[in-house]
Amino acid sequence: QVQLVESGGGSVQSGGSLRLSCSSSVHVPILGWFRQFPGKRRELVALKSSSGTTNSAASLSGRFTLSRDDTKNTVYLQMNNLQSGDTAVYYCNARTEWHLDDPDFGSWGPGLRVTVSS
Fold it and tell me: What's the Cα-to-Cα distance from 31 to each of 11, 41, 46, 66, 103, rounded to whole Å?
């Protein structure tokens, strides 16, 4: 059973930055983040494989960057120029395969609340 430990959420003003971290108890092929708005299903932010392939939401490119450190089984989501529309709960996700059509696939962290105030 994969254990995922998340850190870095919180509150920030519009235009600010946050960095989310997710550490896995074991090496996983694919690791990254989803986010969930109230009343909505989780949606992809970014996932990165150990080989370096990244799948991410096109709408977030240029503001959000996912990096991975396999020596620590950890991914980092750098979020810049945050806007109120980024306010959501962010979940770390570990996958053995991509299955991008399935937003519920894999193992999940407990979630981090990110609040952006204008």
Answer: 24, 19, 9, 10, 13
